[in-house]
Write a structure and sequence with these properties.
Shape: globular
CATH architecture of the largest domain: 3-Layer(aba) Sandwich
Order of helices and strands: EHEHEHEHEEHEHEEEHEHHEHEHEEHHE
Distance between the termini: 19 Å
Helix content: 25-40%
Strand content: 15-25%
Radius of gyration: 20 Å
CATH topology of the largest domain: Rossmann fold
Mean pLDDT: 90
Structural class: alpha/beta
Number of domains: 2
Largest sheet: 8 strands, mixed
Length: 341
């Protein structure tokens, strides 16, 4: 395990912004007999995050009715969901991923706030860079009606882990330029990678009507290999790392291109090679802790810090490492979790 303190996280992630007014948030169902109404705005089907979230609240004895909205990152669909949420006014809104979260709450300083949810508690999860995405102005006290959880390790820790596996000099990444979080992640990676005198090949997927085509993924991965990339970086990109992760992992393996991911499913369920990640179930439970603070204690979302888990796991798919003859060093194996054996 790699353990990062909150102080380290704040030093790497930054925290700045304008102070917003906060206060007690009404726990509308806390003294009534009815269950809490929680609406979930997801970018894909329910997964480990949602399981952890629901399990935590159930163990706390929270009675809840869940309504699932599948948004898939589509701005028009998200806008329709926002209109529905404004009409039904649930007790809590849970959003998964940067596109869904930005679509529901907007930027914290958006000049047209009425287009977004600003008076219902919102908790986000699976958002990699809430400051850069302008979802919140600060991590410690986000202000307003929004708080949530971050699921990835800071970029310096990611780079250290890749270089601990192998002292590579050339890294390739394929990403969806329509996802703001992906663009921000690649820019942060570029700054850290180049600062160390290394070469990054960043390859955005072409867009048609602002949407990428999965058929382009294999060609761009092959292009990464042909550019001389020694490893593929799979960042916090919903299109690449979630929706089409099997295609990415299978293609990388066929191209004999080792891969590093900031999320674990592509390593646990598909032949991605290794990852530095936090447990999706654990991140969901942490989000559930914040939900209980809002629903049971009446705490204002803006007074609840945005956090990530303090522990990140190195997960190595040994079957993939063997197939690529890209074996991990013993030092990394001493604390990594090995799967696919």
């Amino acid at each position: 395990m790699i353990t990062l303190s909150r102080r380290q996280w704040l030093r790497w992630g930054g925290a700045a912004g304008v102070t917003l007014l906060t206060g007690a948030w009404p726990a509308s169902a806390a003294t009534s007999e009815r269950p809490f109404r929680i609406h979930m705005v997801l970018g894909r089907g329910e997964g480990a995050n949602e399981a952890g979230f629901k399990d935590y609240l159930a163990r706390r004895g929270v009675r809840a009715e869940y309504t699932i909205h599948q948004a898939g990152g589509d701005p028009e669909r998200i806008a329709a969901i926002v209109a529905e949420l404004q009409a039904v006014r649930p007790d809590l809104i849970y959003t998964w991923g940067t596109p869904q979260t930005r679509g529901v709450v907007g930027a914290w300083d958006d000049p047209e706030p009425d287009r977004y949810i600003r008076d219902i508690p919102v908790l986000f999860t699976y958002v990699s860079a809430p400051l850069d995405a302008r979802i919140v102005p600060r991590l410690e006290q986000p202000g307003g009606n929004v708080s949530g959880t971050i699921h990835i390790a800071p970029i310096p820790a990611q780079v250290n882990t890749m270089l601990a596996y192998r002292a590579i000099k050339r890294l390739g990444v394929v990403f969806n330029p329509a996802e703001r979080n992906s663009v921000l992640a690649v820019e942060g990676l570029r700054q850290e990678w180049v600062k160390r005198g290394l070469t990054l090949f960043a390859n955005p997927l072409p867009l048609t009507d602002d949407k990428p085509d999965p058929a382009d993924i294999p060609d761009l991965l092959a292009h990464c290999r042909d550019q001389g990339a020694e490893m593929l970086y799979v960042g916090p990109d919903t299109f690449i790392a979630t929706t089409h992760r099997k295609l990415v992992a299978d293609t990388a393996l066929a191209l004999r291109l080792p891969s590093f991911s900031v999320t674990e499913p592509i390593v646990r369920s598909d032949p991605g090679m290794f990852a530095l990640s936090s447990s999706g179930y654990g991140v969901g439970r942490l989000t559930g802790v914040k939900a209980a603070q809002i629903l049971l204690e009446g705490k204002a979302p803006g007074d609840i810090p945005v956090e990530t888990l303090r522990r990140f796991s190195v997960v190595i798919n040994m079957a993939t490492a063997k197939a690529l003859s890209f074996y991990p060093p013993l030092g990394l194996l001493n604390f990594a979790e090995v799967v696919g054996v």
